[in-house]
Amino acid sequence: MPEICTCTHDDISEIQNVITQSYLENYTEYWTDYGENYVKNSFNVDQLSQEISNPNTIFFLIRMDKKCVGIIKINIDHAIDPYDESEALELERIYLIKTASGQGLGKKAIDYVKNFAKQKSKKCIWLKTMEKSSAGAFYRKQGFTIISEKNLVYINIKEEFKKMFIMLCKL
Hints:
By secondary structure, this protein is α+β, with helices and mostly antiparallel strands. The chain is 31% helix and 30% strand. The protein has helices at 12-26, 36-42, 45-53, 105-119, 135-141; strands at residues 3-6, 57-64, 67-75, 88-96, 124-130, 145-151, 163-170. The chain has a seven-stranded mixed β-sheet, sandwiched between helices. The longest helix is centred in the N-terminal third of the chain and has 15 residues, at 12-26.
């Protein structure tokens, strides 16, 4: 049975380990440098400390048999048209390591975030996902629909992977 628990500063090294492992297992083909620059800039201890210190941001660890196998990152009050920040929650990241994929943990994570959002009286959850990622189909099964598109502007991302979908799930 998976356990999902709220992170503190004490969990930063565990967050960093699982997020880096998951990212490198799943997204290296999107980058000319295999994601090295993105991982270095996005998942370093200083960056994660800054993010976890933000009172609007919460990280959750996903554990199976006491082993950390994934993370969830949400931004509690994050507006998206036509919803204001009090009505919308952003699901910024769900990352699972490869060995944890295909076990229903992604669905459990989404259900957890939906319940959290309902407790906060949110009207919707929204997220961004890469067009070429299999995650879009998964999110559609969980009730999300595409509401817009945008292009990423990161150094070293391959041209064919720049397109992102913005998806929304009404609660």
